[in-house]
Amino acid sequence: MTASQHVGMNDDMDGSSFPEGEMPPSPAAEAPAGGLPVEPTDSAVARLTTERDELKDKYLRLAAEYDNFRKRSQKERAELFDRAQAELIGNLLDELDDLDRLVQGGEKSASVADLHQAVVLTDKKFWKELEKAGLESVEPVGVPFDPTVHEAISQIPAPTAAQAGTVAMVFQIGYRFKGLLLRPARVQVYGEQG
Amino acid sequence: MTASQHVGMNDDMDGSSFPEGEMPPSPAAEAPAGGLPVEPTDSAVARLTTERDELKDKYLRLAAEYDNFRKRSQKERAELFDRAQAELIGNLLDELDDLDRLVQGGEKSASVADLHQAVVLTDKKFWKELEKAGLESVEPVGVPFDPTVHEAISQIPAPTAAQAGTVAMVFQIGYRFKGLLLRPARVQVYGEQG
User: Fold this and answer.
1) What pLDDT shows up at residue A37?
2) pLDDT of res. B17
3) Statement: residue B27 has pLDDT above 70
4) Burial grade of B51 (CB within 10 A; 0-12, 13-18, 19 or more)
5) With an 8 Å Cβ cutoff, are A65 and B62 in contact?
6) Nearest-CA distance from B149 to chain A in Å?
7) Rounded to an integer, what distance in angstroms lies between the CA atom of residue A106 and that of residue A85?
8) CA–CA min distance A194, chain B (Å)
9) Directed axis angle between helix B41-105 and helix A112-133, to 10°?
10) In this structure, how many other beta carbons lie within 10 angstroms of the beta carbon of residue B62?
């Protein structure tokens, strides 16, 4: 720290660096604008040393904060992934319980119609909960074939020219979750008019 | 920038600041250790100005990088949450299809036993997939009552002293997902020996 040894300044941000020095005059008072008197060289050294040391300190603090933030983010990402899935499963527990009840008592149903009705209700509850979470089905009958969300399994001649290139039938429903395609709809497409 | 005006230095990090100045001598050569000759004041001003300006630049770059990282993290967190849930639902589509098939064709089952068997298989597939994702059931019959994962609904006298304080019966299974408790098991607890 040679610069400070011959100007004898105090580092006001870190008292341990220059214990024997004098406090420099306030940097603001020493920095004249345009036509004002020129700053004495010794006082410039003192001011610059303070400015440099303050910046070094600010830089090191920021680097440490950034590093902590980065580590915390990494950890939080892993936790967030698990929490997102836990939240979704947590919302499906009632429906899974319903299904388990059908397993445990379903064989005692009075009739096929009764058991079937119970299955229908359970299925409806599942879909209601999943749609609330963000699931959408892709059932594109009659709309123009879109290769980004439909998969053509077969093709038949279109009954009218207007129907050419649209979806004739859905073999398997597709699914999208909050804009992410989970599975394309598998469809039959109308080709040229037959 | 008064300090540079009277020492006539060049800012080697930003050429536009001091176009008329001379280059300062290398800062390294001007910073003697321990017993070496004292640095001239003018050259100290030049060296300190360079050091200060370099630090200011480093600080600003780091602050910008940190800011970008923070914004990107925020955006990635939201995406990660959705992707985690999408992944889980994506893995359950086969089982949801099975359930839908029972809804669509189940009423034509030959017998209650047949339809029940189909429900049992669908339920098993659901649980297999959910356990693969990280779901565990909490079915604590015979283990010591643990208020962090069990909820006591009723209490009966223990048949033996050793059974006091253990779980007698589970009314409703509890669930844990990767260590996160989704629902405590609702249980009957053995109290003092009866």
Assistant:
1) 73
2) 40
3) no
4) buried
5) no
6) 15
7) 29
8) 32
9) 160
10) 16
- Stretch (H or E) spanning B62: helix B41-105
ipTM entry: 0.70
Calculate how close chain B gets to A143, using CA atoms only, in Å: 23
Residue pair A9/A49 in contact by the 8 Å Cβ criterion: yes
CB-nearest to B48 from A52, A58, A116 is A52
Cα distance between residue B161 and residue B164, in whole Å: 5
Residues of B with CB below 8 A from A109's CB? 112, 116
Q: Are B176 and B154 in contact (CB under 8 A)?
A: no
Q: What is the pLDDT along chain A (194 residues), one digit of tens a residue?
A: 333 344 333 333 333 333 344 444 444 444 445 566 778 888 889 999 999 999 999 999 999 999 999 999 999 998 999 999 999 999 999 999 999 999 999 999 999 999 999 999 999 999 999 999 999 999 999 999 999 999 999 999 999 999 999 999 999 999 999 989 999 999 999 999 87
Distance from CA of B194 to the nearest CA of A (A): 32
Which residue among A42, A69, A115 sits closest to B41, beta carbon to beta carbon? A42
How many CB pairs below 8 Å do chains A and B form together? 226
Name the closest residue on chain B to residue A28, using Cα atoms: B2
What type of residue sits at position A89?
A: I
DSSP label at A154? Answer: E
| Residue in A with minimal Cα distance to B4 | A44
What does each C-alpha distance from A65 to A59, A62, A119 come to in angstroms?
10, 5, 55
A chain contacts of residue B9, beta-carbon cutoff 8 Å: none
Residue of B nearest to A76 (CA): B77
Over residues A72-92, the pLDDT tens digits come to: 999 999 899 999 999 999 999
All residues of chain B having their beta carbon less than 8 Å from the beta carbon of residue A172 are 97
